[in-house]
Specification:
The chain is an alpha+beta fold. Helices cover 32% and strands 14% of the residues.
């Protein structure tokens, strides 16, 4: 994948998230409100097949060491439970993510998101515990 694909996926993520940090909900549109944002790969960048697809990219406040992006890398176990980090054996299409409101979402290849039902959340959490 190219840097162009990554930039496009970041743009798609911003629109999908309504220009908010997916983890804390901060406004990412106005730099005077929060002067930093960055695209986060839910599954590590070395996984070439999904690396820069919209289902693998979310926009977070801060950088890889600050804000929610920094928190994600500093707290990998908790970030994995919330879908911000995905292990190499699971694909991004099979790992929902929790937003700042506590809602869980499937991030789709086309850049859209679909909210999980209560039953899907219970099933996901049960399966996650069994697989972990």
């Amino acid at each position: 994948m190219s840097d162009r694909q990554f930039q496009e996926s970041k743009r798609i993520a911003l629109v999908r998230q309504g220009w908010h940090c997916l983890r804390c909900g901060r406004n990412l549109y106005d730099p005077s409100v929060w002067p930093g944002r960055s695209g986060h790969h839910r599954q590590l960048r070395r996984r070439a097949a999904v690396r820069d697809l919209p289902c693998n990219i979310v926009e977070l406040c801060g950088s890889g060491t600050t804000g929610c992006h920094g928190w994600t890398h500093a707290h990998p176990a908790e970030a994995e439970r919330s879908g911000y980090i995905i292990p190499s054996w699971r694909g991004p299409l099979n790992a929902p993510i929790r937003d700042w409101n506590g809602d869980w979402w499937w991030l789709l290849d086309d850049g859209t998101a679909q909210r999980l039902t209560q039953i899907e959340i219970i099933e996901w959490q049960s399966n996650w515990k069994e697989e972990s």
